[in-house]
Amino acid sequence: MSLSELTRHILFLSTLLIASNANAEVMSANLGTPLTFAEIERFSISVYPDGENLPEGQGTAEEGKMLYRQRCAMCHGKSGTEGPSHRLAGSVGLFSIWDPLRIKRIMETNGLLVMSTGQQWPYATTVFDFVRRAMPHTAPKSLTSNQVYALTAYILYLNDLIIENEVISRINLPGVEMPAAKRFEEASRQE
Ligand code: HEC
User: Tens digits of per-residue pLDDT, 66-102?
Assistant: First the structure.
């Protein structure tokens, strides 16, 4: 190999090296500053169906009632049925074309079958999770754990699933049986 050929090779290789370095820079994901454990904790609020990750705290439907009137009723109605937002309680449930009372039920719901949270959600723990992360709609995550327990208890009480002064906490919330859980199990058995 002549000297000029060697120089050409070296030049070519160094160009490749520079190019690959430049590429590495361009391809860096540049994801920013890693979050601290405390910062991650604030967002790590998912509660699982079996109650895993439920926080300390407690509340009763009695306590939740007042809070509900102040912070929820304007959207969900005084008894959780009137709306205008989602119905939390008191829906007619599922009915079929063979249901002899279907005309009455359709008329009661203005022609629409409106399922409530109490009828539709398979786990009471998910009600807690949702209220804590998303409600009230105008100020999500503004409620304390005790307030969320009390409001969850109130929604369960409106659906006749617990009594008014039952103290709801991480111990017994996962054990509250929701009517929808059975339907979910039946549907998955049929698959
Ligand atoms: C400003 C109106 C507003 C207020 C106030 C409000 N909500 Fe809601 N809520 C909504 C809307 C809208 C949805 C539907 C949101 C969605 O699907 O993302 C909803 C959904 C829900 C659901 C789920 C309903 C379902 O079956 O899908 C629950 C439970 C709930 N709200 C509870 C509460 C509680 C408890 C409070 C009081 C702390 C509250 N909401 C305050 C508007 C409101």
Answer: 999 999 999 999 999 888 888 899 775 566 677 777 7
CB 72 less than 6 A from any atom of ligand 1: yes
Report domain 33-190's class: mainly alpha
Domain assignments of the chain as residue spans, ordered by start:
33-190
The predicted model scores a pTM of 0.79
Report the number of secondary-structure helices (H) and strands (E) in the chain.
9, 2
d(C-alpha 156, C-alpha 164), whole Å = 9
Each residue of 25-49: pLDDT tens digit? Answer: 567 787 888 889 988 888 889 999 9
| 183: CB partners within 8 A, 6+ apart | 94, 122
Neighbours of 165 (CB within 10 A): 11
Atom 1 of ligand 1, nearest CA residue: 137
Quote the pLDDT of residue 83. 83
Closest protein CA for atom 37 of ligand 1 = 72
- Residue 52 near residue 143, CB atoms below 8 Å: no
